[in-house]
Design goal:
The chain is built from twelve helices and 17 strands. By secondary structure, it is α/β, with parallel strands linked by helices. Strands 3, 4, 5, 8, 9, 16 and 17 form a seven-stranded mixed β-sheet that branches.
């Protein structure tokens, strides 16, 4: 079968690899249909993350949807051959401190499809049945958005977003857009900020307010005016730009929540006194758990109009090397690139 292998830093080749064979007890054989590319894929491709482990070679692809081709014995009810599923990429160890307190999504020994083991950029993928969630959609690209939406589900949970609150999101990329949809679904009012006007246009379907900003100072002043009163109760940083952590802390209301969702491997400047004086919650977001992934399945189903337009570019599996480079080099043009396997 064909697979796209990241075999070295900034290098992907599409090659023949062995077929995984038939599923054993509790496993399923999935034929991936659509695989989304995201910022964490770019970081992995460039060798910026996972330096504590053997990075290459690896078949990437963790935002994925496909069709079940074969079920092993003892699979749970609800799964059927021919059924479309979204892939929840996480396996936890069950014994570390986060796992012992029920936070398996931040397992210290986390194992992720497409990161720690081979992912969905291949024609067949063998998975534990617990990692596939049935979806009622005829659009596999839309179903592939369930994984990034699950990050938004985790983000609004961590941020304790409630009806009637004001929420500001830095960054109108796919994760920022998904956070806007998830926060609005909880009854919050949302303002999306970005430098790129074209990205903000996608937010119209979610009902979020939007503002093109030129600088951090402009963003803080404009967002304060939008929120009124004491400022927004929650601010999400979804760009991965470290310098935006400080304006997020400055902007949020006293006793508010700042939620860091964007990935970066560089330091962020912060005025530590703001955390103490304003008594803020500064929160990070990782993957979601199984409950959150199921919530993402449901949110995508009821928010198709707001999310479908996020898929702006599609490529075939043989184009995977070009797709990765193009998506990284054209951030203003590409909202979500999907590889049709």
């Amino acid at each position: 079968m064909r697979a796209a292998i990241t075999d070295a830093k900034a290098s992907i080749r599409v090659v023949e690899v062995p077929d995984p064979g038939s599923p054993g007890p509790g496993d399923v054989l999935v034929r991936p249909e659509a695989v989304g590319l995201c910022g964490s894929d770019f970081h992995y491709f460039l060798g910026d993350i996972g330096l504590e482990m053997q990075l290459f070679p690896r078949i990437q692809g963790h935002e994925a949807a496909g069709v079940i081709e074969e079920l092993g014995p003892h699979c749970p009810p609800g799964l059927a051959v021919g059924g479309r599923v979204a892939i929840w990429p996480l396996v936890a160890c069950g014994s570390c401190y986060p796992c012992r307190i029920g936070r398996h999504n931040v397992c210290a020994n986390i194992n992720l499809v497409g990161v720690h083991r081979d992912g969905a950029l291949q024609e067949h993928l063998l998975l534990p049945a617990a990692q596939v969630f049935p979806v009622d959609s005829d659009d596999s690209a839309l179903a592939a958005l369930i994984e990034p939406v699950s990050i938004a589900i985790q983000a609004v949970k961590r941020g304790r977003i409630a009806a009637g609150e004001k929420v500001v999101v830095f960054g109108a990329g796919p994760i920022g857009q998904s956070i806007a949809v998830a926060a609005a679904d909880r009854g919050a009012s949302v303002l999306l900020l970005d430098r790129v006007e074209r990205r903000l246009a996608f937010a119209a379907a979610s009902g979020a307010d939007t503002l093109q900003v030129e600088s951090a100072e402009h963003a803080v002043a404009a967002a304060r005016e939008w929120a009124g009163g004491d400022g927004p109760e929650a601010v999400f940083e979804a760009t991965g730009v470290p310098e935006l952590a400080r304006p997020a802390v400055e902007l949020v209301a006293n006793a508010g929540r700042v939620v860091i969702v964007g990935l970066s491997h560089t330091d962020a400047p912060l005025r530590i006194g703001d955390l103490a004086f304003k008594e803020l919650d500064l929160l990070g977001v990782s993957c979601c758990d199984a409950v959150g992934f199921a919530e993402a399945v449901a949110l995508v189903a009821r928010s198709e109009a707001a999310l479908r337009g996020l898929v702006t570019h599609e490529f075939g599996l043989e184009q995977a090397p070009e797709a990765m480079v193009y998506a990284m080099e054209h951030p203003a043009e590409v909202m979500k690139a999907v590889i049709r396997v």
